[in-house]
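Give me the fold.
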Amino acid sequence: MELFTGIDIVENNRIEKVYKKYGKRFLDRIYTQKEQEYCLQKTDPIPCLSARFAAKEAFVKAFNQAFGKNLSYKDIEILGRYNKPAQILLHYQGFTDGIHQNRLKYTLSISHERNYSVAIVIIYTV
């Protein structure tokens, strides 16, 4: 088994500025429809959007270490689950044979507070 890690921290204010400037265009470029629906239902969607941005960045870093491939933000979906840890869904088409998918396990931890959101991803290959 090999382990690959990725971590990212985001200043929530940075995501808020980009969201205010570009609105739906920004959301559609970075987030899936489910991510947008989940975050935009919150009273303050910025920490949720920031945490998902950090999670996507962390996953991109770990995935690149593991496979030497770059992912787009929409290849990665971070699903929120009420009172449960967030879940990663990988939509990367580069693993069409299923062999890599079966050898790939990953965990995610995200956290946010007033000013920052942080995420760490660990990818396990078997």
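The two ends are 5 Å apart (CA to CA).
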